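Priority: medium. Attachment 1 of 2:
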């Protein structure tokens, strides 16, 4: 089995702690998407109907939709009193109809996945004050709208430092699905991690695909188009990048296809989940995965809700509470580099290393 670095995000669910304002979600048994319960789990807590509106890409996007719904499944496995269901979104035009359908269809709580849905969820929460809402990757507002957020700039920083340490060409790349904060926060962190490596090592590793100052970069304009993801990645490789970090959900699978087509000359870094699990066919081309514990955040929210207390305010996943992290996909990094990464992680956690991304959640 692959080892998970000390800096990994997948830790016990009980370690999820509230770092923003509001009440803390309940603790459980596992934040990796597995409840730790036996198949004969005893139902504990009140019965609730928990529902989820997915973003585009489907429930098997191998990224944020899939991981978020894994949290619902883990919550149901741990407590069968939590009944679960989801509805997919084919486009942004489906957000409001889907939210309305669930809010009026007997759901006690409705979870929206993805920051693009934030305004729709906010409006739905005001329209249906007796229904509790939560949003993945957006701040919550009001008594019945809870935010499940992640400071992935911290994990992205570690990913950038790792990529800069491993590049043979002196060029690495990152590209996104859309130019929105839940995406660019990763790209900011990745770029800052490369810059920090350059400062520490007196190197000049370049980042293709993102300018942290101008906020301009390369985007596939899709979270599903694998062909576009492949062409974007191959273009970066032709310009010298030998490690690429796609932040684009299912579209990022195209980067894996580009790495495969290169015969392994191009390496990739996966996003949101452990890529060697969610995109196992491309595992051997991965140098690491920048993760956020989406399943753990959703599971903790639902556990607390079933226990009788719907959380309010916001949860923010960080390196300190194992909400985000970095997975060494192939257990191939030398001990000295792992020690450096652990030191960088400690600096971020203590605040001695400052990350400046404006997309970082604050409350």
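Attachment 2 of 2:
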């Amino acid at each position: 089995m692959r080892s998970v670095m000390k800096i990994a995000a997948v830790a016990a669910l009980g370690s999820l702690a509230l770092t923003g304002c509001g009440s803390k979600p309940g603790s459980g048994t596992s934040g990796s998407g597995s409840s730790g319960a036996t198949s004969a789990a005893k139902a504990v807590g009140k019965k609730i109907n928990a529902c989820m509106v997915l973003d585009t890409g489907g429930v098997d996007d191998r990224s944020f939709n899939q991981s978020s719904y894994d949290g619902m499944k883990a919550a149901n496995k741990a407590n069968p009193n939590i009944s679960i269901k989801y509805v997919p979104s084919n486009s942004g035009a489906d957000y409001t109809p889907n939210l309305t359908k669930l809010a009026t269809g007997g759901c006690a709580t409705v979870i929206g996945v993805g920051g693009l849905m934030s305004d729709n969820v906010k409006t739905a929460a005001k329209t249906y004050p007796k229904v509790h809402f939560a949003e993945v990757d957006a701040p919550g507002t009001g008594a019945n709208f809870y935010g499940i957020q992640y400071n992935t700039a911290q994990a992205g920083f570690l990913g950038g430092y790792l990529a800069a340490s491993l590049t043979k060409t002196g060029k690495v790349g990152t590209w996104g699905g859309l130019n929105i904060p839940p995406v660019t926060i990763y790209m900011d962190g990745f770029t800052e991690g490369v810059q920090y490596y350059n400062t520490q090592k007196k190197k000049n590793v370049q980042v293709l695909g993102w300018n942290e100052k101008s906020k301009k970069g390369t985007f596939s304009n899709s979270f599903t188009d694998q062909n576009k993801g492949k062409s974007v990645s191959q273009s970066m490789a032709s310009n010298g990048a030998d490690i690429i970090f796609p932040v684009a959900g299912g579209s990022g699978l195209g980067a894996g296809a580009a790495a495969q087509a290169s015969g392994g000359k191009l390496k990739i870094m996966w996003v949101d989940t452990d890529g060697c699990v969610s995109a196992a066919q491309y595992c051997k081309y991965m140098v690491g995965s920048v993760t956020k514990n989406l399943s753990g955040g959703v599971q903790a929210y639902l556990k607390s809700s079933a226990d009788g207390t719907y959380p309010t305010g916001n949860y923010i996943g960080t390196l300190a509470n194992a909400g985000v992290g970095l997975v060494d996909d192939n257990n191939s990094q030398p001990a000295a580099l792992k020690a450096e990464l652990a030191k960088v992680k400690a600096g971020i956690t203590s605040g001695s290393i400052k990350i400046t991304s404006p997309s970082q959640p604050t409350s």
